[in-house]
Amino acid sequence: MNERFQLIINGEYRNSSSDQWFDAENPFDGECWAHVPRCNAEDVSYAVNAAKQAFESGEWPTLSATQRGALLIKAGQLIRQRAERLATLETKDTGKRFAESLPQMTGIADWFDYYGGLADKVQGQVIPSNPELVVNYTIHEPLGVVAAITPWNSPIMIAVWKIAPALAAGNTVIVKPSEHASTSTLALMEVFRDAGFPSGVVNVITGFPTECGQALVTHPDVAKVTFTGSDNGGRIINTQAAESFKRVTMELGGKSPQLIFEDATLENAVHGVISGIFLSNGQTCVAGSRVYLQSSIREQFLNCLRDKIQNLKMGDPFDAETRIGPIANTMQFERIKGFLEETIASGATCIAGGKVAQGDNLGRGHFIEPTIFADVDPTSRVACEEVFGPVLTVFEFDTEDQALELANNTPYGLAAGVWTSNIPRAMRLSRKIRSGTVYINTYRAVNVASPVGGYKKSGFGRENGIEAIYEYLQTKSIWLGTQDVVPNPLT
Ligand code: NAD
Question: Coil, strand, or helix at residue 163?
């Protein structure tokens, strides 16, 4: 009997109002292993009303910022205790190797410590003005009901990047995880209930973009939408949110370049490229999917990279020996396959992989071989669009100026890597590359205190760091008259 997950809205377990469910499919064996409530506009209204009530009345708005922070820190403790269960659900839902999911769960607790600690350090300012007339000061106030819409690749991590600062700022939240991976977010909701958050402060709805997501984005009582997902989804949501002047944060896709200079420590750079494109099967927003090699090191670099990615063990994501798990869902598998077929048909050189992987230990899962293409048409889809899979395209450059031009020749701007031992060059490039993150001689570093976000088509707004809390606050200017007698302005 498959597990049935329930919503938590207003502190209570619920099914969807229609009592309909959809399947959670395990990408390793292709089996349905759980059922998830299929929400519609009625469920959305119910959740928004609960969140609105919790924002306006009851205990939550009466708590001091320090008390809110203490609740967040408690939530972080519970996540550490439940990390194994949460990581198990996430691996079952997404196929991400358990060896990657577990540290992500324990690490994510830091977000609650950080924003719990930050909650009572948000301060207004006293604005210089004439004290004989007025005292003017600012305060920061929460927005109201925040809708947090998340993708399927790292559901809990991405939800927490939104929930923790939103709650620290005093908002209430409704989370809508992806229809492809909802169970870990449903389980995460228990953490907030058990940590003692008042009912209605954190709620969850699950379902499909049009019948559930759209109703949330367009609901008049939602003050802000914070979205992580594809640029297509982002475009629609941004347009819909604009109709009712909602605030929006957009964390979208990328086509991140890695520039490898001949003076780089070659093996480090190879490891950085592997980390960029083959961890989580390339299904990460900062995937370093375009590699630019200085011509003199091309052969040596590609030989070393190919050696390290061939014959990696593929299989069950719960097996500690597995290095490559399945692609997260059928839709994504088909999409990646399409990129492989069209790139091979175009005559590009396939340096490694390029096929659907087959083998006895691969269950009925969707496995793609780690793939490297060279001699790719730089205007082709695989060179320009986000694949969101283990597919790397490799190009060459001769000079630093060329490398910079190639790196910036994309509508995206999420992340970039630079590998060189020439530090002045690294610093020059880090300023000139148009992306929200630049890694130098490392890749994929992340820290709660460091802001993350996109330039250009990769989105706007920032998550993490102190500035993320201001994405969930608005500034009020308060004027206090200090005159005993207020003169008539017409005389
Ligand atoms: P997606 O846009 O298809 O869906 C994301 C979420 O939005 C899901 O919950 C989905 O149900 C919902 N949604 C989609 N269209 C909607 C609509 N019209 N109205 C309301 N809700 C809607 O994205 P995905 O395929 O789940 O995720 C992969 C994408 O996410 C990739 O492009 C990846 O780069 C991006 N991503 C970005 C970051 C980042 O921080 N920039 C992090 C992780 C993933």
Answer: helix
The residue nearest atom 15 of ligand 1, judged by CA position, is 233
Q: Whose CA is nearest to atom 44 of ligand 1?
A: 285
Q: For 59-133, where are the E strands, in sequence order?
A: 126-127
- pTM for the full predicted model: 0.96
Q: What is the atom index within ligand 1 of the atom nearest the CA of 154?
A: 43
* 266 neighbors 301 (Cβ within 8 angstroms): yes
The one catalytic residue in 25, 179, 251, 386 is 251
**CB-based contact 436:412 (threshold 8 Å):** no
The encoded tokens of residue 35 equal: 């059922």
Pick the CATH number of 257-440 from 3.30.1180.10, 3.40.50.150, 3.40.309.10, 3.40.225.10: 3.40.309.10
Residues of the chain with CATH 3.40.309.10: 257-440
Q: Is 37 in the pocket of ligand 1 (CB under 6 A)?
A: no
For 452, the token pair is 């993350």
pLDDT at residue 454, as a whole number: 98
200: region left, alpha or beta (phi > 0 left; psi from -120 to 50 alpha) = left
Q: Write out the DSSP string of 369-400.
A: --EEEES--TTSHHHHS---SSEEEEEEESSH
Residues 6+ apart with CB under 8 A from 486: none
**Do 361 and 324 meet the contact criterion of CB atoms below 8 Å apart?**
no
Cα separation of 391 and 387, whole Å? 7
Cβ 206 under 6 angstroms from ligand 1: no
How is residue 325 written in tokens?
């798990």
> Is 299 one of the catalytic residues?
no
Cα(230) to centroid(ligand 1), Å: 4
Q: Which residues pair with 306 in a beta bridge?
A: none
- Burial of 150 (C-beta count, 10 Å sphere; 0-12/13-18/19+): buried
Question: 3-252+454-477: which CATH topology?
Answer: Aldehyde Dehydrogenase; Chain A, domain 1 (3.40.605)
**H/E stretch holding 12:** strand 12-14
Listed in order, the ranges of the chain carrying CATH 3.40.605.10 are: 3-252+454-477
Give tens-digit pLDDT for 321-356: 999 999 999 999 999 999 999 999 999 999 999 999
> Residue type at 27?
P
Q: Which of 465, 459, 442 is nearest to 228 (CA)?
A: 459
Between the two ends of the chain, the Cα-to-Cα distance in Å is: 83
DSSP H or E run through 52: helix 41-56
pLDDT at 363: 73
